Amino acid sequence: MNFKKDLAAILFELLEQEISADELELMIEKPKNASHGDLAFPCFTLAKLKRKSPNMIAQELGEKIQSPIFEQTEVVGAYLNLFLNKKLVSEKAVSEIITQTGHFGAHEFGGGGNVTIDMSSPNIAKPFSMGHLRSTVIGNALALIVEKCGYKPIKINHLGDWGTQFGKLITAYKLWGDVEKVKQSPIKELLALYIKFHDVAESDPSLEDQGRSWFKRLEDGDEEALMLWQWFRDESLKEFSRIYELMNIQFDSYAGEAFYNDKMDRVVQLLEEQQLLVESDQAQVVELTNEELPPCLIKKSDGATLYATRDLAAALYRKENYNFAKSLYVVGHEQSLHFKQLIAVLSKMGYPWAENMVHVPFGMMLKDGKKMSTRKGKVVLLEEVLTESIAMARHNIEEKNPNLANKDEVAKQVGVGAVIFHDLKNNRMNDIEFSLEEMLRFEGETGPYVQYTFARACSILRKGKWQADVPPANCHTTWEKEWKVISMLIEFPNAIQRASENLDPSQVAKYVVDLAQAFNKYYAEVKVLEESAEQPARLALVYSVTVVLKEGLRLLGVEAPEEM
Ligand code: ARG
Q1: DSSP summary character for residue 323
Q2: What's the rounded Cα separation, in Å, for the pair 267 and 26?
Q3: pTM
Q4: Residue 473 — pLDDT band, cuts 50, 70, 90?
Q5: Among 117, 128, 158, 341, which is best to mutate for testing ligand 1, by the most ligand atoms less than 8 A from CB?
């Protein structure tokens, strides 16, 4: 279902194979205005090559093209505009979607290669922040999208469960902690201890030394230190798991920073062997002057390792264990420098695969135009956000459809879907304004709008007694009125490809909104449920829309209830 490719093949023959079909395909455009056809081929490049005017070339090509998939061509200036044969293409599209169902839109260019996706990665003993929500949601969608393109995603939760802050936390717990309080509400209590540590340390700097020494004990495998650390970690993970469960997100690995504790000596040794480590301010660093980056800190003066050391060990481990084709890091743009340094150090170490590591940054979540901060009590707890969103969705159902059978289940699908969709619909680099009312609206570019359109289409199918296993034998329609919807449906594979290539799920989110809008417009104009010769074809179209909306939402990690 790739008409650009088909057209490129035709042009390739007509042009006597002077330009490769792949190059031609890249030149073909999709006109913004439907009145200019479905595809357009600009002839500027050919004009130079053939020393003729572009207009003349367009004329000549237009006269020569003879293919059943095009019903009309038209020359406007340097452009050859082509109109697809509505009947042929529509029938092909609909029957392809009916037979392939959820597989429609898949690609194979991934070739089965592994893609590791470092995502979510919250810090233990701290609240799950909006930044971690964004990483979770974007990472999960990317996993589904690359999988659809033939890669094998490996989702890794690189937990922030190691580092000097755990020395501080243990110090604070030993001084002021209370077992019961921690058990009752672990993250809240541990955060309070951590904040108290910093407050008190301002007037009593000896606390910092104690913190450092506890972290040293932790790194050296001291029993008491390890036991406390393990406990903090277990309790925190219990809280995080509730959020992942609500969002229906699973991981292939929870190997966090601590996992690399015994793998860092090797990194340091490798760096030493290559004489890349130098001393600076009593610390060990890798200079990155040629790369125009600040030095990358590997070891502190007291021998403690750092965030970057652990990421170096993790990169080596991932290459060795997963032999990734691509390694993605879905982490906020504040950490851009860190990932530049990481990739630069690995390149210096002579690993060509460092090129396949990609930092996938994203913008901030704002509240009233300001950064949402987890510090200083201004905490917006994600779990609360999700529960509130679900409650609001439940309330909407009670108002609009009180007789719905499985209200709680649907409220969860809509409430959670709204939060996820709101996050994914913008280009990932944009900052986004957090607003529950906005997310849950039934009109506009929201998750509930797309879900509602899907449910509405499902209800039409139920009323029309459509049966997916009996494809309409003979479609008595010209597909004129259906064409806008059809031309959206055939765009689905392209939207997926763009999302994968740009590592940007918003391509799919925008696509499903556009398809939902095209469908709603169609349904307002055409009486699908009225019996007519066209009805089987129209129901087949409605069914195709449900297939693609559902699959599009699935790729974003959003469920599609059939009734809501
Ligand atoms: N835990 C870190 C944070 O919250 C994010 C970790 C990202 N992944 C990585 N491999 N560095 O800032």
Answers
A1: -
A2: 43
A3: 0.94
A4: low
A5: 158
